[in-house]
Every structure is written in C-alpha cells, then in structure tokens.
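Exercise: predict the fold of this chain.
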Amino acid sequence: MNVTVYYDYICPFCYLGTKRILELSKEFDLTIDWKGIEIHPEFSPQGKKRTKTLKSQSFAETIREMAKEDNIEIKLPGFATNSRLSLEASEFAKIKGRFLEFHAAVYEAYFLEGRNIGDIEIVLNIGENAGLDKSELALCLDKRTMFDKIAENKKEAQDNLVLGVPTFMFGSFPVHGNQSMQTMRHIIKRTLQISQD
C-alpha cells in the first residue's frame, strides 16, 4: 500500500506518528512517501524560548502520555525554531539514499537532545552523522537547491486538503493528526480490504 506522510520536524505529533508508521511498516507492505512541509515559516532559526502556560503544560502532558503508550522517549525542547533547512536537507538525504537515517536523527536532535534544528551547523552535523557528505549538504543548503521542493510539497498538501501535520494518506484516504497504533492498524487493514474488493 502507498502511504504519503506529511510532516514537520518541529511537530511532536509528527515524531510520534513517524515512529508508529515505521513500526507498522514491519507488519504491512507499505511504500511510504515522506513530504516535509513547513508549518511555521514565521519562526526564527535562532529559536525562541516558549513561555510556560497552563495550556503549554497541558499540551506537554498530552504528548508525554501519547509517547508512553508506545514506549517512545520524548522531551519537548522548550523553544520553537524554524525547520526549513532541516526539511531541505531531508530532500537532499532522499537523493543520497540516507533519508530515514537523517529523518530519525533530526527528530532525536530536537525532541531528545534539545538541539536547535534551525541552526545550519547543527543540521550539517546531523547530516554528517546520518552518512551524508557534509560539504555536499552545505552546498545544497547554501544554494537552496531544495527550496522549491518544499514549496511543491506544500502545494500538494493544499491540493489534498491537508489541514495540518501529521497527515497520513493511506492510498487516497486521509487520516489527520496522530492516531494510536491500534487505530492506524485498523485503518490499514480496512483500506487494504476495500482495495481488494
């Protein structure tokens, strides 16, 4: 089954959803197409500290509870940053056959280590650790080679009525937001059944 995943690296629900869909790909024959879209282009690459409010604390608790369901470790970084360079680097990683390694490493840098994935030096270090040539990646990001690709992903997301991230397209059936493993498993089984009927 073809699955398209719309994601952004600064979204904790995308981190959890990525873990879940990759786990499910061990059970089902899934061909996953990853489409990075920038949900907060207004955020500064320098990062901005988040203020602690009752709403943000409630949000953090929700994330922790969801992560606990699947034994996923997550630490909200306490600051917001811009994801554009990381998204562009992910498209470069696809071409070089190192996408999943880079993809996982960016999420872990942000949601486990609290590193600023909007900082070009950090993105370059993540890329190098994921098996990318650092100088090639630097050239790609300097020339903004993948800039238009992220714009294309956004346009495609809009055309498919993607309202936010994560969104999973199981064939042509959209699932918005993060779902439990059980729910996603049920959706995959149901979609496969419909396609066979």
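Check your answer against the key: The mean pLDDT is 94.
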